[in-house]
Amino acid sequence: MERMRFYWSKQLAEHLNIGGSTLRKWALALEKAGYHFERDEHGNRAFLEHDALALKEFKSYLAAHMTIESAAALIAKKYGRDRNLNDIADHALPALPHDERMERLEAKIDQLMSELRQREEERNRADERRDQALMQVIRQMQENVQLQIAATQEQKQRKRWFSLFSKKGN
Description:
Blueprint: E1 6-7, H1 9-16, H2 20-32, E2 38-39, E3 45-48, H3 49-63, H4 68-79, H5 98-168
Antiparallel strand pairs: 1-3, 2-3
Helix pairs in contact: 1-2, 2-4, 3-4
């Protein structure tokens, strides 16, 4: 069995020379009339070849001044879920070559990975600067504590000497 081709919204909208919002509006009207579109795991419509043909005919009905609801009802009846897909295979739209789509996706993934690596390096440099600044503050605090300890010990020693000399003088 031959694998079914599918189109994403952007591809099909470009082929039909309509905007993406128009395609969504038409798809909603068709679904309301009982037409079924396949969806991916994220809920995005994946238009099959027979969907493309149905939408092309839907467009011609609208061009002939038919209402959206009437055109949707006709298309849903004619191309509905139970329609034999082999009957319309001869009218299929040409799909974008798989290799071209994969190359674009791989290029986008490479670009995103490069940006991610750059951000990670920037974050690491920022963390290193922060760590150095913190270590400097900690060292200064330790030095201050040692100076305070030394001053306190010196003060205790002075008091001891002072108390020794003050007792003899009495």
